[in-house]
Amino acid sequence: MIEVTPEIVLSDDEAQVRAVRASGPGGQHVNKVSTAIELRFDVRGSPSLPERVRARLYKLAGNRLTLDGVLVILAQEHRSQEMNRQAAMERLLELIRKAAEPPPPPRKKTKPTYASKLRRLEGKSKRSGVKAMRGRPKGDD
């Protein structure tokens, strides 16, 4: 059992992990060893996720989610398969934890106060006066 939050606990068989070959440059080692990890987690079919967390996870997953509702995480930043497995699992848990947080309340629109409007206009008129004084004096032609 994997504890994500105190109320969300995943069973070990919910995430399928398989080793794949890492992409990119690397020479002999990367060409013959499958160190990258592909972690697949069925968001739609998971009995451990509450509905509100599932809905938020759909939004957070973005293009990592397949049409079948499976979240795919690829970890290949380490040379060791075990470290990549841990990194992929930690990314999955972090994503679920973020989805479990309640969304922030919507922002309330406010209007500027009368005093702040006056201060802004006062500053504009001062600046206007400074710029007007830069020109040639009037009447000295």
Molecular structure report:
This protein has 141 residues and is an alpha+beta fold. It has a single domain, classed as Double Stranded RNA Binding Domain (2-Layer Sandwich). Helices cover 39% and strands 16% of the residues. The chain is built from four helices and five strands. It has helices at residues 28-32, 51-61, 81-100, 114-132; strands at residues 2-3, 9-10, 15-20, 36-42, 70-75. A hairpin with a 5-residue loop joins strand 1 (2-3) and strand 2 (9-10). Helix 2 packs across helix 3 (81-100). The chain starts with a strand and ends in a 9-residue tail after the last helix.
List keywords for this structure.
single chain; 141 residues; alpha+beta; Double Stranded RNA Binding Domain; three-stranded antiparallel β-sheet; two-stranded antiparallel sheet; 5 strands; elongated
Q: Could you give the topology of this structure?
A:
Layout: E1 2-3, E2 9-10, E3 15-20, H1 28-32, E4 36-42, H2 51-61, E5 70-75, H3 81-100, H4 114-132
Antiparallel strand pairs: 1-2, 3-4, 4-5
Helix pairs in contact: 2-3
Structural class: alpha+beta
Let me know the number of strands.
5
- What is the count of helical runs? 4
Approximate helicity band: 25-40%
Question: How would the global form be characterised?
Answer: elongated
Biggest sheet architecture? 3 strands, antiparallel
Strand residue percentage: 15-25%
Order of helices and strands: EEEHEHEHH
**Average pLDDT across residues?**
82
Low-pLDDT parts are none
| CATH architecture label | 2-Layer Sandwich
Q: What Rg, in angstroms, do the CA atoms define?
A: 28 Å
Q: Kindly report how far apart the N and C termini lie.
A: 90 Å
Strand ordering within the main sheet:
3-4-5
